[in-house]
């Protein structure tokens, strides 16, 4: 009996508590990402969602909504939070509203991601979904979302809060500034930059540098309005 108890203690796995902020579509996809990470190696105790727009106690994909941002700020134990939203300015607003020193923001990288060991630097709170390929000498700051099957080429810099929808292709030596949103299937040619707060439409091809605070669409992508 003592030997059985010892074996149980040795097999006891300590996992970090983690919750998802945002229980919408992307937040539910984040749950599947965390499930995939745990299937590969037990890392996280996923305790639920936080969402200011869903009633506390609601069950979403088998997990309870634990409250909103105010409830996160009342947590009295160490916990990871991952952003389940993709809109840059919403991400920035949510992060600025979290003041609890017990909260940390891990990088979540799906096990299928191909990422070079040659000088790929990640900040905090980044989400890199299944099928992404990151080559070498890349700097990714904080709270970046790389959705399914994106590619990022060499010597690229991506500033904080930017989001990339599925199958975006970013060539080498590109600089993408803060809070940029790039739609599904867009392509960014090498040695260009995109100004902060700019939106690139789905399927666009960015063949020239884009200014800040615009929406650009088409092939080649051109600004159609400024905001």
Would you mind describing this structure in some detail?
- With 227 residues, this protein is an alpha/beta fold.
- It has two domains: 2-106, Rossmann fold (3-Layer(aba) Sandwich); 109-215, Hexapeptide repeat proteins (UDP N-Acetylglucosamine Acyltransferase, domain 1, 3 Solenoid), CATH 2.160.10.10.
- It has four helices and 25 strands.
- The chain has helices spanning 2-11, 25-40, 69-72, 88-96, and strands spanning 16-21, 44-50, 59-60, 63-64, 79-83, 103-104, 108-109, 114-115, 120-122, 127-128, 133-134, 138-140, 145-146, 151-152, 157-158, 163-164, 169-170, 175-176, 181-182, 187-188, 193-194, 199-200, 205-206, 214-217, 222-226.
- The strands form five sheets. The chain has an eight-stranded mixed beta sheet with strand order 7-10-13-16-19-22-24-25, covered by helices on one side. The chain has a six-stranded parallel beta sheet with strand order 8-11-14-17-20-23, with no helix packed on it. A five-stranded parallel beta sheet has the order 9-12-15-18-21, with no helix packed on it.
- α4 links the parallel β5 (79-83) and β6 (103-104).
- It is globular.
